[in-house]
Amino acid sequence: MIRLHCLHAHPSNMSYIEDVFCDTAFELHHTVDSSFMERAKQDPTFDLQKQQAYAINSLMQEREADIILLTCTQYIAAMGDQQHLFKQPIVSIDEPLFELICEKEGPLQLLFSNPDTVEGTMNRLYVYTKKRGNKIDVEPIVMRDAFHLCMNGDTQAYEHLIKEQLRKCMVKKSEDICVMQLSMVHAAQQIEDETGVSITHPLSSLKHFINRQMTTLKE
Q1: Residues 5, 65: contact at Cβ < 8 Å?
Q2: What is the pLDDT of residue 163?
Q3: Of 125, 169, 209, 219, which cross-links 96 as Cys (Cβ 3.0–4.6 Å)?
Q4: What's the domain range around 31?
Q5: 172/165 Cα distance (integer angstroms)
Q6: Binning pLDDT at 50, 70 and 90, where does residue 19 land?
Q7: Number of domains comprising the chain
Q8: Given a cut of 90, is residue 215 above it in pLDDT?
Q9: Angle (CA) 116 37 91, round 5°
Q10: What is the rounded distance in angstroms from the CA atom of residue 101 to the CA atom of residue 67?
Q11: Which of 57, 49, 108 is nearest to 85 (CA)?
Q12: What is the Cα–Cα distance from 8 to 35, expressed in whole angstroms?
């Protein structure tokens, strides 16, 4: 049994990962650390250096994990390139997504519902594409008044807004669409079923990516 430890900033993310790995040999363990995000937003002394020390210390506690998955973008940004400190692979939720984005040809619309994640995610995406030698044609689209609904547990209203925005994005028929956050996946899947138009999202290749990481580790 492979122990996959998942670190989240919000408990709603757990069900997404459970759905992906429900038919696999992975044993899932979840940790929800909402205090990290709260402190990052409210405490001006909690700078990037302190955030990184906090994140590293937290992940060091996951001693029984065979592989660690980070779904919190703030944690991912804080960690930076610190994989060398850990015996297990640490996978960020956007790494397999970045891989898919690099494989896309033509313009791509990147939809965000949480404005706080845009800058960090886009910076990591550009670093990732530069390392791979890829050139991408992307347009970030940021929803300013939606994410608070998700945080307040008003899932129905939140997903309604996401679906409305996705329909607007589809007006540009020559451009593919990618939603950049886990909380947007259900709405994206519903629009896919409704329209038949494929929408890339953070779970599109996550299981394949994690399996590949474990295969490489065994070799």
Answers
A1: yes
A2: 96
A3: 209
A4: 2-92+204-217
A5: 12
A6: very high
A7: 2
A8: no
A9: 85
A10: 23
A11: 57
A12: 11
